[in-house]
Write the structure tokens for this entry.
Amino acid sequence: MKEELDFSSTVFSGTVVEIIDENKNQSIYSSADPIAVHFEVNEYWKGQNQSPITVYTVRNTESCGYEFELNQEYLVYANESNGEIQVNYCSKTTLLSLADKDLAELGKGEKPIEKVLKDSSANKGEEQISPESSTNIKTIYISLLSLVLLLLIMYVLKRIKESP
């Protein structure tokens, strides 16, 4: 168990709250299609101190994917790859109800401190605007509007001077 903890970049327990399979309704799909699994984190031992958290796996075990079930609790051992937290069938990830030995060896975990907004599938790929960036956008907009107004005034004044 210690080896798996050392090998993993993220270890937490949590409940699956959403599973996103973008290719689910496609006529052609692969066992290696990516699946996004959103967890509400209960405790963590290593890695990101946040909840919810999204881990990625592939569609099924034929391609070494871990087949998570909605509303089930898991002890997750994951690794970061290409900026994503990934889980595979060969990790020690298991149903929380079957993880008594691991939990005893891990000891008491910590509660996640940071609550983050969960990305919905409708917003995938879109950046969320923070209050700071919203203020910056407003400042840029006002600056551009002021510049256009100034140019308009200069144009009108020039036309007035040129007229007989």
The mean pLDDT is 77. The chain has three helices and eight strands. The longest strand covers residues 34-46. The helical segments are 2-7, 100-106, 131-162.
